[in-house]
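job 3f2a | input accepted
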Amino acid sequence: MNTTRRFAARAGAALLALVLVLTPSALALTPQQAYQLLDVYYVDELPQGLEDLATVEEMVAALGDPYTTYMTAEEYEAFVNSVNDETVVGIGVASQITDQGLLISSILDDSPAQELGLVPGDLIIAADGQSLAGMGDAATTLIRGEAGTQVTLTILRADGTTMEVTVTRREVAIPHTTVELLPSGQGYILCDSFGEETAGHFTEGMTAYDEQADNWVVDLRTNPGGTSDAAATTAAYFIGPGVMVYFRDGDGNYNYTFAPVGFQRLTEKPVLVLTSPYSASGSELFAAAIRDYDAGTLVGSRTFGKGVAQLLLTDAVYPDYFQDGDALKVTTYRFFSPNGTTNDKIGVIPHILVSDETAAALATLMSAAVPADSRDQMALTISGVTWYIDLEEAAGEETRAALTELLEALPPAAVVEYGQGGTAWEASDAQYVAQRWGLTLQDRGFTDTADSEYVFAIDTLATYELLAGDGDGAFRPGDTLTRGELAALLASLLRITPAQSGHFSDVEEGDWYADAVNAIYEAGFIAGYEDGTFRPDATLTREELIAILAQVGAWLNMDLYAYAGEYTQEQGASLTGFSDWALPAVSMCENFGLLWEDAASIDADSAALREETAAILYNLLTYADVLPA
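job 3f2a | predicted structure (629 res):
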């Protein structure tokens, strides 16, 4: 497989609902007009005092949202070109917008960036000495420019070192999507963005190769997104009719994109979707749809976590507001998978969580074709899809490490069978396979959970690296949990960070739990006390645990969100022993089967245990399809 990264250089290309029209004229957007538009379209409540700010740029900065940006005519034109052009003039990178600058997600072949040795994971923090921190889309205008001109970039590398490089801009070709048939018998689609031509490339390639292909591989490891229509349509080629994505606006109203009854899928064969931290937005839409419909298996790393969509407001919709060719890109929707789950911040967690390099190797090892002779073959079934692996080939020198990592990454729900020859298969497990082929596995689980009633839940969360122990391999399942420990667990799980500190008088900067406490508080999942304290070392009660995780659930999932918004006292009338403030949460968790035992058996005031926390968290994440059931 050619795993060289080929992609579009499109910082900020992870957009979903766009109007792309350019008609320059005379006057720029005023702050008053900007506030009116933000008040109508912005997905979240606007900060206090926003309307009093003097410039549009100050308003956008005050939102703290890197995806909501105001663009001058020049910036807008550059943005449109970055999304649609098949060639660009620049340095040849695709990047994600971050608070610090532009995070390089991939490098174009035969580009200036490739020649200088830039790599995915490098962070461009300044251009010609000007910091890119907080600039959003505008940062791309400092990187792009006329062919033959130079720009000096300050690069922060993954190891913490910085360097400066001077790059001469030139025209670089952008291959969007390529389709080929691999010697292994798999159809391989490298998709670097979801654009106007993507569906056509999928159609042409899949039609040409589907009859010969054993299964399909869609490589989204450096795909920063694109349009929702392209992502939804291509996902439907593997799924068939049905809803592909839901959008929710700031008023709680939904619309959706779907493949209608009669829509013809292009294959009946399963698909491996390769993901990485650089798979964002439209890539996450695609991956989540495949996951929810059990149309294939996701392999790789947790994705970027962009679960919001933008509208691009121009003179096409507001001719009186945009008279200078300028535009306002506004985060207008949160989007949800077919089963109603957000990927915002948390990302899409693949069925098989492995490194990006291993994902590429596994794509050539995992086949959906049933072997004629099962001897020394492994059958792996996960979420209803079965893959076959030739162990003699996989245990070879070049792929031995990949096979090892695959076996380490198998969750408890995965079904492993070992071929006995002919058509015979025998139930097996990862340890047996490893022993037969001389592999040493690093257990992702804990040393002290075997006797826990909730070992399955604990081991599953550990496999997906969502639980931490005490540093010596133990989990301490029977120990109690503090408020600070829960905050740390949830902040890590949801991948959220605080905008500021100092929310509580007893949480000081430098405390190991400080960032987590502030982040969880800002997200609205946990509150402090009336005296201004958080009490991070206080033991959490069971009803407090349920109340906090119910709020997390309502944020993650549309069904839980709806239940929370429509709760009535009658729904909690049969629940006894719980405080009135906890009844909505307990009712929700009881109704959706999220509790570790019946609510009637739970002593609300007693201390929550670590194993109970793992159990309710596992139930929540599997119900919401964040984890495979």
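job 3f2a | The two ends are 31 Å apart (CA to CA).
job 3f2a | closed
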